[in-house]
Amino acid sequence: MLTDLTPQPPDKILQLMQIFRDDPRTDKIDLGVGVYKNAEGVTPVMRAVKAAERRLVETQETKTYTNLRGDPAYCSAMRELLLKDSAGDGRVAVAAAPGGTGAIRQGLELMRYADRATTVWMSSPTWPNHLTIASYLGVPMREYRYFDAATRDVDFDGMIEDLEDAKNGDLVLLHGCCHNPTGANLAAEQWETLADLLARRGAIPFIDIAYQGFGDGLDEDAFGTRLLASRMPEMLIAASCSKNFGLYRERTGVLVAIAPDAGSRPLVQDTLAYLNRQNFSFPPDHGARVVQMILDTPDLRSDWQAELEDVRNGMLGLRERLASELRMRSNSERFDFITRHRGMFSRIGATPEQVLDLRERHGIYMVGDSRINVAGLNSDTVPVLAQAIIDVGI
Questions:
Q1: Catalytic sites, residue numbers
Q2: Taking CA 179 as the corner, what is the angle to CA 177 and CA 180, rounded to the nearest 5 degrees?
């Protein structure tokens, strides 16, 4: 059996990380890996996380199992963070998952378990794991246009035209905020138009919200998610705590399913627990317990939100400085889209040859599609990147 396994293609981002590590240059810049870094190049443990962990160590008396759907207090706290009162508690089923990736997997498992001839629609481009998970599960996929390579903004007309072909019961996978890999977000009025289309077509939105608080603020970043939750009869949401709580290695996430009515919610909740049992049994608890303590403890929540705002504003500041440097060096405004993008990422529009040129000549590493992680910059490297972009002719 084991000798008959099929080799899988290497992960391009992990490959890039290894090439970066092997590069002996001391002035190299890593803009490839999708992890938040501060100005010193460190992914810090947030203050509120450290404080919550200390309290947890002092008060926790057992490591026994919690619940197949995860700790109820954590599920409740995450439901409030994501939805507030947009859907009403009576329709909302929640289950913890191993990170946002695990939540995506469970959402697609739920779709497959429903035994419907359902297609999942994904933005072009999207996070590569969306495609690989769906492909592995054998879920039918279609793409909808999302990013205009010329303007570096959302191709909303193309998106709406493509989604007119979505059928009743199809899943439409949407990035709740801070689109990965492009950084281009839907405006409020575009979310409104999209909600009308989905309702008319009978398609079910599946929101992946991995960066709440990294874009325009905690509530602002949840606008589209809450709007759809208030209007749609059914909906799925996969949320990650990796970025906004800095809990990458703790694998802390949640899958939310909004049922058509309160009467159908218990069956949905039981099914989420059943799917957890089949895939990993009880979900990880440490990160979930830390998140729950932060969200439910006023002093911890206040400090967490303050630090998250510092992170968000820091990335916005880097975007403004990079756009300013590029404006000065190019004597044009063609890079101003960087200030309109949100979150960690922007796709800057370089060709694969220019991406390679940036790496080989300037020691600047980015993903092959020219996605840069803005959080990988600091005040010293912003002008270096800007000049390199001009030098390679982007």
A1: 127, 208, 210, 243
A2: 135
